[in-house]
Design a protein that fits this description.
The protein has 227 residues and is mainly alpha-helical. The chain has nine helices and five strands; from the N terminus they run H-H-H-H-H-H-E-H-E-H-E-H-E-E. Helix 4 runs antiparallel to helix 5.
Length: 227
């Protein structure tokens, strides 16, 4: 569905999410017509349709009310606006799926909306803590050594740590990134980290080297690039 939406944007066509949503449903039904009776199929598309049609309207109204208030501090307005956007998605999905949920399950759970109100403000804290904990406690007891390393996240600053590089101990590192990507990948700190662990000749960045091919006969490995 996203591929169709992206293609429409690139071609300058209508940017609504509804056509790709309809196309995705048509493709799935063409592959398996019986899926139309699946509750997961019905709920998924109903939720997406509700979010596409209703969430922005809810969010704009709530955000406008918050921004127009003279009693709410600016920093609080930003926090509340984020909460409103999160709640608008939950509310839109709940409304759109309510008839199906009532039909299939005999009840309409409304806990999703207030739970969003409680979770959204602290979600970044939980996610940040979880990521840091996972990275810090990652167990390299299992063998992760590899001759070729495809660097994670297009070579972002924190994508591959020194500890991970030491554990993998690659002979070649490949960073895939576009020439004019908006994030500036790969980050210079990452390139320096790779070059310290390997060598400048062993680091292949597609932005500079073009297509990079890795060839092996099961024993030896060759790396070829366009440039």
């Amino acid at each position: 569905m996203f591929s169709v939406y992206l293609a429409a944007r690139l071609l300058g066509r209508q940017r609504s999410v509804l056509p790709p949503l309809a196309l995705a449903a048509m493709i799935m039904l063409a592959i398996d017509p019986a899926i139309v009776s699946s509750i997961s199929f019905q709920l998924s598309f109903a939720a997406l349709l509700g979010i596409a049609l209703l969430s922005a309207r809810f969010a704009v109204r709530g955000s406008d009310w918050i921004q127009s208030s003279v009693r709410i501090p600016t920093i609080t307005k930003r926090l509340l606006t984020g909460v409103v956007y999160g709640m608008s998605v939950s509310l839109a999905a709940t409304i759109a799926t309510a008839p199906l949920v009532a039909f299939h399950l005999g009840e309409i759970p409304l806990w999703g909306i207030p739970s969003t109100l409680l979770i959204v403000p602290v979600l970044p804290l939980f996610l940040g803590e979880a990521v840091l904990t996972a990275v810090a406690s990652f167990d390299f007891g299992q063998p992760v050594k590899s001759t070729v390393l495809k660097v994670g996240h297009h070579g972002s600053r924190t994508s591959t740590t020194e500890r991970f590089l030491d554990a993998v101990d690659p002979a070649v590192a490949i960073v895939t990134t576009g020439i004019k990507n908006q994030f500036g990948h790969p980050h210079k700190d990452m390139i320096e980290r790779l070059q310290r662990s390997l060598s400048e000749e062993a680091v292949f960045v597609t932005r500079a080297r073009g297509t990079v091919s890795v060839i092996t006969d099961g024993t030896a490995v060759w790396v070829e690039s366009e440039r």
